[in-house]
Amino acid sequence: MKWILVPGILYAILFMISMYYFGHTANNFIEWLSLKTGLKTWLDKMNSWTYGLYNVYGRENAYFIQFKIDPNNPSKTIAQQTSLFRFVPSVTWNFKF
Predict the structure, then answer these.
(1) 84 Cα distance to chain centroid
(2) Cβ 24 vs Cβ 7: under 8 Å
(3) What is the pLDDT of residues 12-58, one digit of tens each?
(4) I need a surface site. Which of 40, 44, 48, 97 has the fewest CB within 10 A?
(5) Which long-range contacts (C-beta less than 8 Å, at least 24 apart) are formed by 26-35?
């Protein structure tokens, strides 16, 4: 289970709006969903190729979430999700000598 730190209160000091964060154990991070698959082909007893694909669903899982103050309405907070990779392919050549 991943934890997320969510701003609880917005306050203003000298015309600057800031966020106050409560404890990190109060909220859970968005669920992470991925499927990994692979295929191994043998050329002979000593050589093989392995092909894999991570995140077959293509879901954009959150790497981190950044909270910003809405420029149009400073009393609201916007959560912006950042994702790294949608699909991650892999190719491996295995050999024995």
Answers:
(1) 6
(2) no
(3) 677 666 666 666 545 556 677 788 999 999 999 899 999 999 989 88
(4) 97
(5) 27/3, 28/1, 28/2, 28/3, 28/4, 29/1, 29/2, 29/3, 29/4, 29/62, 29/65, 30/4, 30/61, 30/62, 30/65, 30/81, 32/2, 32/61, 32/62, 33/57, 33/59, 33/61, 34/59, 34/61
Q: What is the pTM of this model?
A: 0.56
Helix, strand, coil percentages (3-state) for the chain, rounded to 5, are 5, 50, 45
Q: What is the pLDDT of residue 1?
A: 45
- φ, ψ dihedrals at 92, nearest 5°: -135, 135
Tokens of 2: 């991943």
Does residue 78 contact residue 70 with C-beta atoms inside 8 Å? yes
Q: Does residue 94 contact residue 50 with C-beta atoms inside 8 Å?
A: yes
